[in-house]
Amino acid sequence: MPDHDAVQKFFAAYGRALAGGDLNGVAAAYSYPSYVAGDAQSIAIAAPAEVKDAFAGAAETYRRRGVAHALPRVRAAEWLTRSLLWADVAWSYTDEGGAELDAETFRYVLRVSGDSVRICVVVAAATEV
Questions:
Q1: Which superkingdom does the taxonomy of this entry point to (predicted)?
Q2: What whole-number distance in Å separates Cα of residue 48 and Cα of residue 27?
């Protein structure tokens, strides 16, 4: 079972893929099917191509806004079952100089199998309620 450092490393790799526009890397971080829930909509994701399509526009938006890094901070994590881990992650989106351009918080349910960690549920969370 991964410890807090392993979960932090997983999200750091995911953040590098996000900020770098590595759509294959982003898609590889997910278990399928996956589910994404937010205030405006909920999306079931059946295959990697759907993740790539969803993040293609986001990657371009990051580049336009000058986002160079997506930096995660795992604030909390808790085992739900032997293979499901809940994680509360705050994201800081920074430019090349390290200035924060934006911040978001998400809750994730991760599927853990051996050394493999994959996202199976993402829920957008309010940074402040």
A1: Bacteria
A2: 5
* Cβ atoms of residues 110 and 85 within 8 Å: yes
> Taking CA 109 as the corner, what is the angle to CA 103 and CA 113, rounded to the nearest 5 degrees?
125
For residue 11 the two structure tokens come to 């999200």
- At residue 76, does pLDDT exceed 60? yes
Does the pLDDT of residue 27 top 50, yes or no? yes
Task: Determine if the peptide bond prior to 72 is cis (ω within 30°).
Answer: no
Domains and CATH numbers, the chain: 4-125 (3.10.450.50)
Instruction: Report the run of H or E that residue 13 belongs to, with start and end.
Output: helix 4-20
Q: State how far the alpha carbon of 80 is from the alpha carbons of 49, 57, 59, 100, in Å.
A: 28, 33, 31, 32
Q: Which residue has the higher pLDDT, 47 or 3?
A: 47
Which strand (E) or helix (H) includes residue 102? strand 100-113
